[in-house]
Amino acid sequence: MKVLVPVKRVIDFNIKPRVKADGTGVETAGVKMSMNPFDEIAVEEAVRLKEKGIATEVVAVSVGVQQAQDTLRTAMAMGADRAILVLTDVAVEPLGVAKILKALVAKESPDLVLLGKQAIDDDMNATGQMLAGLLGWAQGTFASKIEIADGKATVTREIDGGLETLTLALPAIVTADLRLNEPRYASLPNIMKARKKPLETIAPADLGVDVTPRLTIVSVAEPPARQQGIKVESAADLVARLRNEAKVI
Amino acid sequence: MAVLVFLDHESGIIRQASRSAVTAARALGEVHALVTGDASVAEAAARIDGVAKVLRAAGAAAAHELAEPLAAVIADLAPAYSHIVAASGASGKNVLPRAAALLDVQPIPDVVSIVDADTFVRPIYAGSALATVKSSDAKKVLTVRASSFDPAPAEGGAAPIEQVTVPEGPALSEFVSIALSQSERPELESARVIVSGGRGMQNEENFKLLNPLADRLGAAIGASRAAVDAGFVPNDYQVGQTGKIVAPELYIAVGISGAIQHLAGMKDSKIIVAINKDPEAPIFQVADYGLVGDLFDILPQVEAALDKAG
Amino acid sequence: MAQQLQDEARKAMTEHARETMEFDIVIVGGGPSGLAAAIRLRQILPQATVCLIEKGSEIGAHILSGAVIEPRALDELLPDWRETGAPLNTPVTEEAMLFLTESRGYAVPMLDRVMPHMRNHGNYIVSLGDVCRWLAARAEEMGVEIYPGFAGADVLVEDGRVVGVVTGDMGIGRDGEPGPNYAPGMELRAKYTLFAEGCRGSLTKRLMAMYNLRKGVDPQTYGLGIKELWEVPAEQHRPGLVQHSFGWPLDNRTYGGAWMYHFGENLVSYGFVVGLDYPNTWLSPFDEMQRLKLHPSFRGTFEGGRRIAYGARALSEGGIQSIPRLTFPGGALIGDTAGFLNVPKIKGTHTAMKSGMLAAEAVAEAVAEAMEGGRVEPTSYTARVRKSWLWEELRAVRNVRPAFSRFGMKGGALYSGIDAMLLRGRAPWTLHHRHTDNEVLESASVSPPIAYPKPDGKITFDKLSSVFLSATNHEEDQPVHLKLRSDALWKTVNWDVFRAPESRYCPAGVYEVADAETAPRLQINAQNCVHCKTCDIKDPVQNIDWATPEGAGGPNYPGGM
Ligand SMILES: Cc1cc2nc3c(=O)[nH]c(=O)nc-3n(C[C@H](O)[C@H](O)[C@H](O)COP(=O)(O)OP(=O)(O)OC[C@H]3O[C@@H](n4cnc5c(N)ncnc54)[C@H](O)[C@@H]3O)c2cc1C
Ligand SMILES: Cc1cc2nc3c(=O)[nH]c(=O)nc-3n(C[C@H](O)[C@H](O)[C@H](O)COP(=O)(O)OP(=O)(O)OC[C@H]3O[C@@H](n4cnc5c(N)ncnc54)[C@H](O)[C@@H]3O)c2cc1C
Ligand SMILES: Cc1cc2nc3c(=O)[nH]c(=O)nc-3n(C[C@H](O)[C@H](O)[C@H](O)COP(=O)(O)OP(=O)(O)OC[C@H]3O[C@@H](n4cnc5c(N)ncnc54)[C@H](O)[C@@H]3O)c2cc1C
Ligand code: SF4
User: Fold this and answer.
1) Could you tell me the pTM of the whole model?
2) Where is the Sigma-54 factor interaction domain positioned along the sequence (chain A) (predicted)?
3) Would residue C529 show up in a list of annotated catalytic residues for this protein?
4) Which of B67, B299, C137, C360 has the largest count of CB atoms under 10 Å?
């Protein structure tokens, strides 16, 4: 079974993004970038499937700028066998990414595409579902457990208020939630070895995909600062206000 | 054109978040509601104030809100609508992007404000920034944040109900089971109310003083890093930059100074209450209601006041 | 025999657990010295395998500097830097040195004659982190293998010779036991290993002890620099302006002052250096740097601006009197870990780079000789240093910093004026450093307390919201990387005598006294640490040992810092 894992290069999760003074976006120059944390989980799961003998090959894909190579190298250091960079300097929306991935699926014929549930920059939480829609495949989003047997995937999903279990006909799309696993470190020996694993670069045009964005950014602003409230005099006053004013109890 | 709103339900009860989506959708046009499940769900949807028509996708294929058939239904209905809306819950986020892909539309998730029919405000970078985006798609597919729109009243409407058919197709996914969490304490990330303690609780024993209040409010219990490091509570209680990020309706911070790393994990709560003996503590700068005093005096008083209020 | 068996057993065990990789040269630390050495090595020996490790999550993540830099070494290393996009974009156009009283600032007249070392024409205001990122990209193009996120945790020594380093283990829990994600460190073996750890390197410290490298030299003395990066309204921005100050708020017994550099797009680098030989245990370098911003000579710049980053780092202030032996079998020390910083200039970038280049040349020569069974110690490095402009430059300013310790701030300023104008740095005497910085701290009972103003949240801030802007983090579940040699000593010395000076000098709020009223104990918030190394230097009885935490931990200084 072949597994395709799309990974995105995003601002490192330790870094608090800073809105540019001119309101056109978030400062990315000189900012540390890393693999989207949900994608690390997806890579880890794919590698575990391989270690269990279920998957035979894990292919990491990224759509992005040249430096997204580093992200792919990290995926390979974690255990992916090879990587594909779809090189583009323009920002590609989930719809565009999904179209690119669909074209790659046609080329690579994976049995499973494992994505992160969402990228922590744009927080779209859309790419996996859209790819599933475009391919007409089953989808198991927000997965906290995956089992593969008898040509089917059994996926436990994190839903509002609990867990839901589905079986999916393969090939299928699964998106990884936080609790699926705890990803391993890319160790130094493996990073060194990953330098020698194959990385292929292609252009969206080679795949015949139009990725013209549908959304334009009008402005990006910092959220308004929280206003200081009031000091109440007594516990009774507090309870009364929570009940009557704020209506939260 | 009208707006199609997908209302999700849990065990037959329409979620409050979906009624918020109705409110958001009303700003865009006449609201038609799409529901699955029993007739009672459709009837409940028909009574929501502001819903002009209910579309009920009945039958096995539509049960359990599986994404594949539901997205297909939405795509089928789409030609009659300018916007397709759902609440930003697990269900809406599962289904709507798939439907959008079928329509060749880029969805707009987590809308917190509607500027006009094409322009929406949504948080990015986990709320560190707000992006105003304008869509050039002919049709808009959006999910909206429930906390940003008041829920439409559950009663007051009397909309007609129509059946819609679920397009035939191979069953790609199958429902196996659902397990709703039963724990007495809700989980931190999904709790409606959180009571959180800091170093001011002094020790493990005293930290338990928060239990009765939390029980009383059906709240989860959280903690600051200082409280975790001092061993009052385990690691997974920690709220903040390196702990859990939460946004409950009510967050009660007891004996927490309000360092920025703690605020990073809870500042998006709807209402923040601070109980602290230091009137200069930074937590008061973000608290909606602050109570200055010794927490060991105040906690019993709050409980008493709650009991009195019934 | 038993010893030999034991050694072999240990070797076999480590070999089992750790993977090994062989290189010609391994460089520990990706600052200007390490990167310059790497580039130079590949220039001379294009076939040599050069591996550089950096404990920061990326190159530049741990680099904290002013920085006004002299391009002299860069000119020698990469003469085409102007054409190849080096981020040296703001030439210095205007400079001022202010003497501050509490409410006024007096510009020192004839600056370039009284303080010739402060002359900055031809220099550039930069983000040293960005310069390092650029140097790293050049180095990688030239075939250097760079691995950020991996700390050199131990030195590999065999038969008295350094044969490389071991990177830190990953995934060890707080209890010291390997967790589910355990990944053992790796042995990076090399013919020669260059230590480029910057001020107060943790492996350097071990090498100094192992090879007695400090024998016969003055103790190293240090300063702590705390920095903020601001974005200010365009009308307050004067690109190219370099402003320094001395005097208020420090007393005459404390060496230090502030800097303010305007560069880039509305960016201002502001910071404060205090000599770590300060005596007053109540002094808080962080609060000094905060309150200085309120002085009329500085405040106007920050009004209406936005603080975007924060950080701190120690620097070596000993000068040539304090430079240790530079080589040992199998390697050498380069950059600020050896102490190559021109103190009165507060510049160490060009000297760090130059020392790295000279060491590279020496190593290249030794590698060639080693093939014929030659030298194990790249000793020609020392001779090269002594023959270079680097030595001449440091020699000329050698008496300035010690004069301040000896004659106080005002006397020191006077001495350095005389030294510069009359003696022109050629005084026939050398003033020595008589103490280490930790020895001169005075007890809480004799030190005058200092009342610092409360932060206003606009121009001045508290420590924790500052640390937030350093984007510092450490994986929580790991052993504490700040070790007390003795817990008991903390109570009897640090608390009873000095009232926990670490809670004040640590610029990241790592050290907190808990239960001060009842049973005082030290709470170490290791996660906050910005790797400045001050505690390793200033603890009164050297009870704190700074070790490298899990790789990639620590600050994540952004571009512009
Ligand atoms: C309004 C708007 C503004 C934008 N502004 C910018 C900008 O300023 N700079 C910029 O660089 N981009 C920008 N983009 C594009 C953006 O970078 C994304 O490529 C796109 O929006 C994907 O959204 P997401 O990552 O949140 O998707 P999600 O649907 O949240 O991602 C889910 C998963 O899909 C996969 N995935 C997503 N994207 C990729 C990818 N590129 N390669 C491989 N796998 C992927 C990953 O597995 C990921 O975990 C913008 C997009 C929009 C809509
Ligand atoms: C990289 C990094 C990550 C961090 N991550 C987190 C994180 O995820 N979560 C987090 O919480 N912190 C985090 N911190 C730590 C944070 O900076 C603070 O140190 C911590 O939040 C302080 O916890 P506290 O408010 O409980 O303690 P303190 O700051 O000591 O505050 C205790 C408060 O209790 C009050 N008090 C004491 N006694 C009483 C009484 N009897 N009655 C009423 N009030 C009383 C005091 O007035 C005081 O305000 C992080 C720091 C760093 C640098
Ligand atoms: C506040 C301040 C202001 C300054 N202003 C100026 C100025 O204006 N102009 C100027 O020219 N100079 C200035 N300097 C001095 C200059 O920054 C230093 O001299 C110079 O950075 C030294 O370079 P280096 O390569 O020796 O060390 P560093 O720049 O300190 O780099 C050392 C690198 O090694 C890494 N490292 C350390 N130990 C390990 C390990 N064990 N394993 C892996 N990696 C490790 C560190 O993370 C770091 O990235 C200033 C210094 C400070 C602190
Ligand atoms: S703990 Fe030590 S090295 Fe870390 S920031 Fe504090 S003083 Fe600096």
Assistant:
1) 0.93
2) 58-228
3) yes
4) C360
